[in-house]
Amino acid sequence: ETGRVHGDSRPSRTAACSAHTQSTTSSTTNLHLHCTIIMKVLMKLSGKKKDTTPPAKKDGKPETKKEFSKSHYHMNTRLTSHEPSQSNLQPVFDGPNSLDEWNSNLPPLEDIPNFRDVPASERPELFLRKLKACERMFDWSYAEGEDDPQLGQKELKRKQLVEVLDHINENQKALNEANMPNVMEFVSVNIFRGFPAFPNPAHVQYDPEEDEPIQYPEWPHLQLVMEVFLRFVVSNEVDPKVARKYIDQPFITKLLALFDSEDERERETLKMILHRIYGKFMQHRAFIRKSINNTFYHFVYNTERHNGISELLEILGSIINGFALPLKDEHKFFLRQALMPLHKVKYVSMYHTELAHCISQFCMKDRELAPEIILGILKFWPQTNSPKELLYLQEIETILEQTGCYGMDAIIDPLFSRINRCIMSYHFQVSERALFLWHNERIFAFISDYREQILPIVFPGLMANTKGHWNATVHQLSINVVKMCNEMDPELFERCAHHYKRTVELANEKRKRQSELWHDIETVALTVAEPGWQPPSTVQPSLVNYEAYDVHGALEQATSLSLNLPKALNFAKPRGDI
């Protein structure tokens, strides 16, 4: 209305420009004022210094280094939990005093009644009160049998958690939209935490057959909290569109970090929770796959240490099974860049079953990927690790059987060259596993169809084993496979046998010549050089004519002076009869 001229319903351009100028000036002034206030606040905050002195005991004496380091990872680690609201501030535990300060702001566990002791109208409020009280944290560093002053409080919290879980099971409406911030704060404070340092060095891996399983002492509480969260995720009362404000990407990132837990029970529960989140929150699916991809990158190329690789691969197995056809390029990229490099890790046996299942899922989705996958396995084939060779031979056999050897005619040379080296392996299990490929019907049919290419490649290994392998089982299996090849195509077998015989004869002749040559060299090396000759000054090492010099004298000089042959020939005397 300010820009209108009296008597005219249309706004005046001059008045409008003037009003716009005044409004812009006023907005600029207010913005400048706000920026000034913000800068003053930031300067005041930045001027505070952090107190780095160790916490003191109640008697005022500073805590010793041993006592101060006794606090477990719940006390010395920042709980990196989700922040769904401004009130959801996460505790920073710098010592026992900070832990007490955090717990002092929570309602006591003793004063909370049971759900059955209050009217139905008061139960929603009691539910929120129990959730808040169960955010209480404890020190779990006390060893078994050690006097724990918090033992009674820990048991009270466990009972309260049991009541919360029973209440949710009986009343699904407790997980309504109004209670979501409280539930997520309760879950975040309890499950997001730091882990203790690995007790073993990087090259010492956990062996489930020999080592005792590691079980966290706080698992009785964690199990109940994760059960509550699982009920929250699968509840029909929880709308994904509303819950995604709390279960967002930072939350999922921290949830994936928990898979590095050394407690197998926690990893199994997390596996169920993440699988449910992937199924319910479709907008997070791509991010979950990408985050798992990054976890694999960090594991393969940085640390080679992670406790939850097998559980993550189990989740991926079900995810890959649901991929739509044709496969997207991002899924093929995930196969090439994330899954295949997992074969190069030294401790692949700890998760190879789950990895092979994921690989077979891709082969079943698209058979054209099978040759590329097998070439990838051959790329990471171990040279001195026989247990890994057994795993890879089994994986290749599974792929060939599932795909019917589709497209393998293009990779016959590298594939069966590797199989031939496995047949000749001195490790009897590797040789035995390679020979068992001829007992697979589909693989034997493929070998029969492409025998012109395959038999010449594997024939040397088979004949070497039949002539004498230290293991009787491998020796007998090799004889059986040779008989199968002979019955398959006698003419081809005869040609291969003739070629193998000729190759052996040539090798023997070459070995004989080398033996005679080395005998001559040893004889010449023991001969005394002729006296009186001088080394030539015009011959360069790169222009040596080996036939124009006294090889006998050069060999003697090379032996006495530890020189190589070209340098020794510089000191050799020219001979006219060569």
Task: Give a verbal description of the structure.
- The protein is mainly alpha-helical.
- 59% of the residues lie in helices and 0% in strands.
- It contains 25 helices and no strands.
- The chain is elongated, with a radius of gyration of 38 Å.
- It starts with 12 loop residues before the first helix and ends in a 9-residue tail after the last helix.
- The N terminus and C terminus are likely disordered.
**Uncertain runs with pLDDT below 50, 5 residues or more?**
1-26, 48-96, 538-549, 561-578
**Helix/strand structural class:** mainly alpha
Our estimate of the beta-strand percent is under 5%
Shape: elongated
Terminal CA distance reads: 116 Å
The averaged pLDDT comes out at: 78
Rg calculated over all Cα atoms:
38 Å
What's the SSE pattern? HHHHHHHHHHHHHHHHHHHHHHHHH
Task: Estimate the helix proportion, in percent.
Answer: 55-70%
